[in-house]
Amino acid sequence: MPYDPRNPIIVQGDKSVLLEVSSDLYQEARDTLARFAELIKSPEYVHTYRITPLSLWNAASAGLAADAVVEGLERYSKYPLPDNVRTDIVDFMSRYGRVRLIQEDGNLLLVSEDVALIAELARHKALAPYITRAIDPRTLLMHSGRRGHIKQALVNIGYPAEDLVGYVDGEALEIHLRPVTLGEQPFVLRHYQEEAADLFYARGAASAGSGVVVLPCGAGKTMVGMAVMAQMQCSTLIITPNTVAVRQWIDELLDKTSLTEDQIGEYTGLRKEVRPVTISTYQTMTYRKRGVARR
């Protein structure tokens, strides 16, 4: 592929990527990088991204192939891609989904068609605490209450699991977005907000319902959250940075959804309301009283 010095990105051997903001292709290149790279810093003229195993695995979980990642980098790069970057992209992305978490008859199973890989994982000290026993050469019975710990261990080992277990349905709660706000203003999601909510929900598939939606400040992440709630139609816990954000969420939900005041609860240091939609803070949810030392 011919490379053009007018292109906006430079891919370096340590898998960092420099993006020139002044380029006419800046927005296209930025949107491409956002699918598989992490934004590290964004000063005025040159933004820095980094391609990491986790960013590549997240891309793979969203259905992006290694060839598409390489092609995206080549399309906007000033210079040829370093060989090690190309090799690492293919290697890391090929590891996603080699093992899968599934549920059968109430049991949490780690399965793979790769017998040697299952044998290697069964002996790994990071995963061993969560293994109950081997069922067969391709299947490990895992501790059902440690699903998150198992996934974290597999990420650290270098073989992230495709999680096909799904989730328990929450208590049903009818939620609709208003076409007109209480302030009598038209309310319609922007296309990228609607797309983010659709990708998160993924029509209720077992592999959906978890992840991180990343949008710039002021892009309407609260709107995305409300759109997801409207798709899920179930009771919701919302955790925010502070009490001010709690009150902002309450105002937005009342203004733009069919929820009523008696359906929304504030769980903070000042109030302890648990309702179909409960909004709290990180500090409140993680607070623990310190023990009193005995003499």
Q: Tally of extended strands?
A: 12
Supply the number of helical segments: 10
Give the termini separation. Answer: 74 Å
Mean pLDDT: 91
The rough form would be described as globular
What structural class do the secondary elements suggest? alpha/beta
Q: Which percent range fits the helix content?
A: 25-40%
Question: Strands of the largest sheet, in order across it?
Answer: 7-8-6-5-9
Main beta sheet strand tally, sense and closure = 5 strands, mixed
Structure characterization notes:
By secondary structure, the chain is α/β, with parallel strands linked by helices. It has helices at 26-33, 53-61, 66-76, 83-95, 115-123, 147-157, 191-201, 221-232, 243-256, 282-286, and strands at residues 9-11, 16-20, 38-41, 46-50, 99-104, 107-111, 131-136, 139-142, 161-163, 236-240, 264-267, 277-281. The strands form 3 sheets. It has a 5-stranded mixed β-sheet, with helices on one face. The mean pLDDT is 91.
Q: How would you describe this structure in keywords?
A:
single chain; about 300 residues; alpha/beta; 5-stranded mixed sheet; 4-stranded antiparallel sheet; 10 helices; globular
SSE arrangement:
Blueprint: E1 9-11, E2 16-20, H1 26-33, E3 38-41, E4 46-50, H2 53-61, H3 66-76, H4 83-95, E5 99-104, E6 107-111, H5 115-123, E7 131-136, E8 139-142, H6 147-157, E9 161-163, H7 191-201, H8 221-232, E10 236-240, H9 243-256, E11 264-267, E12 277-281, H10 282-286
Parallel strand pairs: 5-9, 10-12, 11-12
Antiparallel strand pairs: 1-2, 2-4, 3-4, 5-6, 6-8, 7-8
Helix pairs in contact: 2-4, 3-4, 7-8
